[in-house]
Each structure stands twice: as C-alpha cells, then as structure tokens.
UniProtKB/TrEMBL annotation:
PANTHER family, per the entry: EXODEOXYRIBONUCLEASE III
EC number in record: 3.1.11.2
Endonuclease/exonuclease/phosphatase domain segment(s): 4-248
Keyword line: Hydrolase, Magnesium, Manganese, Metal-binding
Gene this protein is translated from: xthA_3
InterPro entries named in the record: AP_endonuc_1, AP_endonuclease_F1_BS, AP_endonuclease_F1_CS, Endo/exonu/phosph_ase_sf, Endo/exonuclease/phosphatase, ExoIII-like
Cofactor note: Probably binds two magnesium or manganese ions per subunit.
Annotated protein name in UniProt: Exodeoxyribonuclease III
Marked site: Transition state stabilizer: 149
Record-annotated active site: 106, 147, 248
Top-rank taxon: Bacteria
UniProt keyword annotation of Hydrolase present: yes
One Pfam family recorded for the sequence: Exo_endo_phos
Site (Important for catalytic activity): residue numbering on this chain: 218
Length: 276
C-alpha cells in the first residue's frame, strides 16, 4: 500500500498538477495540506473522477487539510486537535482508512519568532504530542502525515546556519518534534535514508530548486505496527519542477501487507512512475 503526503499550496490553483501526479503515481491514500479553499470550493468531482474518495476541512485563503483514498471508505474520526475549543484553524483531520488510522496535519509555521505566531506553533505542537500519545497507546496501526513545518536536524536543511533565527529550525520546535518521536513513532523517510540530505520543500525564490537548496519539513510518522511494515520511502522530487507546481514535493511510503513480513528496501533515490 502506497501512502503519501503533499502540501499542494492552493488546491484549485494547482489542481492540474495534483491530478497529473495522482494519475501517474497512483498513491492509495493521500494527505493534503494548504488547500487554501473554503469547504464548498474543494474540487471533489475531478478527484473522485480519478477514483478517489475524499474528506476535507477547508478554510478560506489559508490552511485546509484533506484525506483521499482509492482503497476503501474513509471513516472520519476527528477534525481539529483536542485541547483548544477556540482554535479555528483547519489544520488537522483524522480518519480510519483500510485498517489504518491516519492523522493528516498542517502544523503552524510560527514566523516571525519570537511572537504570538511562534507561541501558537508551540502550543499546537504540545496539543499534537498529547493527542499522538493517546493514539499510540491504542496499539493500533496509526500514522501522522503532513507538513510539520520543522527541520529536525542539520541534515534536513540546506545551509543550516542561515536558518538559526527561523521558527522552522528553532530549538524549541526541534525539541518538540523529538519529544513526539520519543513516544515511539518512526520517521519513515529518515529511517530509510539515514545519511542522505533529502528535501521535500524548495522556496520559489533565489533559484532554490535548481540549486537543491531545500528543506525536509514534510514527514510521515509510523506507530510500531506500521513501522514493521515499512518497505520504502521516497520523495517525488520531479513534481516540484513541473509548471505551476507547489513549492513542496509529494512524499510517500510503501507498506507491506499486514499479513506479510516487511522487507525493508535499501535506501535509494526516487523510484516512481511520475514523469518530468
């Protein structure tokens, strides 16, 4: 089973890119972030025409998350993290799909730092950690997937010395990420690429993509039952180079069948039918 996360950076403006990638890569389940569309403007028909069921939580101009599936019904279990009933941001959606509980998330950026936006980022992170701990305690196959807006280590950012004052690389944000992992989550991409400078985001400015001046901020975290099934984890880098593409690239993992022993692939570059 192939499961992906993709920050589309505006689903309607980037719809041709999204549809092309879905048709060519054919992931089974997808978490989307930054829809930047109100609930009624989600393009469900063209997505369903490709064979995907969908649930989403929209928000005008900002945020927005969705889960797509072509391998069974999506049984929504939650939208919005617990812990702050006044939080109006569309940043978290959760559902059971094909035997896996998936939390799709778009963690706050937090810039400028210091300030209220950074404080909100850390509070949101704390709420995520608390909820993730409850999910993990169930012992069920669970995944957290999305744009975490954090580069965990120096290996996850081009020229880390230039990001020391940024909220995405702040010690507090990185520490929160590792508090999350310490609960027992597996960072799928880094597990299969332990020493590789592998990125998921490249800014539109300063020719960042051509220079491979990127960041790794999109993550798929697996509970122990899923980590045992991890076979592959890759980034569809080529999609970032398509015309009118998002500044993120899709990230995906492959899981062995629940009844089959997983055989972890040797770390390697992208292997995908997606074409330039």
């Amino acid at each position: 089973m192939k499961i992906a996360t993709y920050n589309v950076n505006g689903i309607n403006g980037r719809l041709p890119v999204l549809l092309r990638w879905l048709a060519e890569s054919q992931p089974d389940i997808v978490c989307l972030q930054e829809l930047k569309a109100p609930q009624e403007k989600f393009p469900d028909k063209p997505i369903r025409d490709l064979g995907y069921d969908a649930i989403w939580q929209g928000q005008k101009s900002w945020n927005g998350v969705a889960i797509l599936s072509r391998v069974g019904q999506i049984h929504e279990t939650r939208r919005g993290l617990p812990g702050d009933p006044d939080d109006s941001h569309s940043r978290y959606i959760e559902a059971a799909v094909n035997g896996i509980l998936i939390g799709g998330l778009y963690l706050p950026n937090g810039n400028p730092k210091p300030g209220p936006k950074f404080d909100y980022k850390l509070r949101w992170f704390d709420r995520l950690i608390a909820h993730a701990g409850e999910l993990l305690a169930t012992g069920q196959p669970v995944m957290l997937a999305g744009d975490f807006n954090v580069m965990p280590t120096d290996l996850d950012v081009y020229k880390p010395e230039r990001w020391l004052d940024d909220a995405l690389f702040a010690p507090e944000a990185r520490a929160a990420y590792f508090r999350l992992l310490e609960q027992g989550w597996t960072d799928a991409l880094r597990t299969l690429h332990p020493d590789e400078a592998i990125y998921t985001f490249w800014d539109y400015f300063r020719n960042a993509f051509a220079r491979n001046a990127g960041l790794r901020i999109d993550h798929l975290l697996l509970s122990p039952p899923l980590a045992e099934r991890l076979v592959d984890a890759q980034v569809d880098v080529v999609v970032r180079g398509w015309e009118k593409s998002s500044d993120h690239a899709p990230v995906w993992i492959e899981l062995a069948d629940a009844t089959t022993s997983a055989r972890r692939a040797a770390p390697r570059r992208r292997v995908t039918p997606v074409r330039a």
